[in-house]
Amino acid sequence: MRTKKWKHVPVTETIQPKILYYGTPVILLNTCNEDETVNISPLSSSWALGNTIVLGIGLGGKAIENLERHPECVLNIPDPSLWENVERLAPYTGKDPVPNFKKDNGFKYEKEKYAVSGLTPCPSKEVKPNRIAECPIQIEAIVKNIQIPEYAPFFAIVETQAIHVHAHKEIIMNENHINPNKWSPLLYNFRHYFGISDELGKSFRSEI
Ligand SMILES: Cc1cc2nc3c(=O)[nH]c(=O)nc-3n(C[C@H](O)[C@H](O)[C@H](O)COP(=O)(O)O)c2cc1C
């Protein structure tokens, strides 16, 4: 007779969290302003399959306005060492005037996102917005589709196609691979920043 191995089954409670940022990599999204300068927007809502990368971008911000006008972007993927540069960008929007709902959440207008973040621009190969030199992975991408869900008309689902992937030499292995022992993403975990390790710090909007 087979002996049953009893496993501890955790007890659950039903909760109503305000946010569902359950720990996805941070992206610094570079888009083109109307005057061809570059706006940088921190994001964490994304998934990738093949060369398609889908982003969740709030309406009323500068990123979506820029992508609707000029459908090119760079997805810069920071590592944990850059969390404070990301957080320096967090209270700002490139949108002027700042929409009321953003004002109410503590956002201010800032056009000079490079100056604020302390990061360095470098030219892209094909798309108009530049890349962020300090980010170990930088993906040039074209917007293929923008969809606003009927059930949630406050954000856009933006489908992009990666066309060039740039990576710091130190994290490349066997020509076309990223070495997972050398690379680790910066994770946004319920508004706190983590590497694949201990907590590094938290966002200004964290309530805990
Ligand atoms: C780490 C981090 C992750 C974020 N993730 C998202 C996201 O996935 N989608 C989104 O619309 N906003 C996200 N935000 C908020 C935007 O960064 C914020 O709305 C910002 O004002 C956008 O800048 P922009 O208006 O200049 O585009 C995130 C903020 C931080 C700090």
TrEMBL record:
Its cofactor is FMN. Pfam families: Flavin_Reduct. The keyword Mitochondrion does not apply. The keyword Membrane does not apply. Residues 22-196 form the Flavin reductase like domain. Keywords: Flavoprotein. Signal peptide: none annotated. It comes from the Bacteria. One of its GO terms (molecular function) is oxidoreductase activity, acting on the CH-NH group of donors, NAD or NADP as acceptor. Belongs to the flavoredoxin family. This is Flavin reductase family protein. The lineage of its organism: Bacteria, Bacillati, Bacillota, Bacilli, Bacillales.
